[in-house]
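Quick one: structure for this chain?
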Amino acid sequence: MRATHERRVFFFLSAGWGPAVRTLPIIERLAGHDIASAFALGEAPGAAIRAAGLEPIELRLPPADAAASRTRDWWSPYHHLAFSAGDIAPLLDRVEAYRKAICDGRPAAVVTDINPLAALAARSLQVPHVTISQSLFLPGRKRDAARWAMPSALSTINKVLAYYRVGLLEAAAQLELGDITLIPSLPEFDPLDDTPPSLEYVGPILGNQLVPLRSSAQRPSAAKGAAEIFFYPGRPRDTAGPSGQELLDIVLMALNGTDAAVTVATGGFDFEIPGWAQGRFRIVDWCVISPEYQPDLIIHHGGHGACLTAISAGIPSVVIPTHAEREYNAGNLAALGCGELVAIGEADAARVRRVVEGMLDNAACARRCAQWSETIAARGYGGADLAARMIARILQGG
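Got it. Here's what it folds into:
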């Protein structure tokens, strides 16, 4: 690489709003250290962030589509690498796109959020590298059932690293370890048996208020003392197929006729919402949990950020995970006593309705959620401030 831009950081994010929500506060804090940031994020979230004026990184990634029938049970981006060992040429084309962006932009550091292709590019160029990750993707995770096994991606990773003549790895998950690895969570929700010295639990980073979508943080007008439910279905479609749309359809039917005041946040995505539901529920692009809007229950898809939003706010959850990775998150949330998990394959309107009604009457769960919220606050995690300070320290050679 040529000489770097000493006060500039590149963020390469994985898909969806989750990575953006925990990255935007870090970008905001880095600006306070006179460090500029640029990002790469696809889909509707990327377009919204670009429209808000943040600097995009131009990537020309060759397509790498796979049928939903093949990817439905993939719980990690590493699955794609695991199935690429026979022919790494298409993979190298995608790694080269990231390498070109880094070489052209010459950032002082690269931050990746569960993006193994960008991590391979950063490692091959031997630039300062910070990773943002979750316990599921890291070495030494405690919950290591057969559900989370996959064909090894190590062979593919080492073929790529050998191609670029850099050091090989002993385990595929080591690619998720950067010079610094930040877990925007707490050890009880993201447990590890072994914590490397370069890894830091910085606590939940919840930048929902920074998302550049039309936001609502007010109580629905129909509340008037009734229970309040907030529902976030995630994306309409992901590697599991139209999972978010299926979840939306099930939950809307489950909540039809309930006395609760219901707010549905679409994330700015183009969901198909039936006309009767638009008149029955409050439909918004985005919603911020705050002192002004503190629902009694959150129904969601099991995203890492959605789980931690609920735990941090002390609000019980009904989780219907729409992707295998989200099953892991949902299981950890339920293990803390902060909600109930309903498997997507077993979810129908009648069952979801029963679980929701049970959770609204579950005083013990509400108390446990309040206790976890107080615990997180009392620990004084550094969050985005700590993450930004650690990234700034790397730029200073620390």
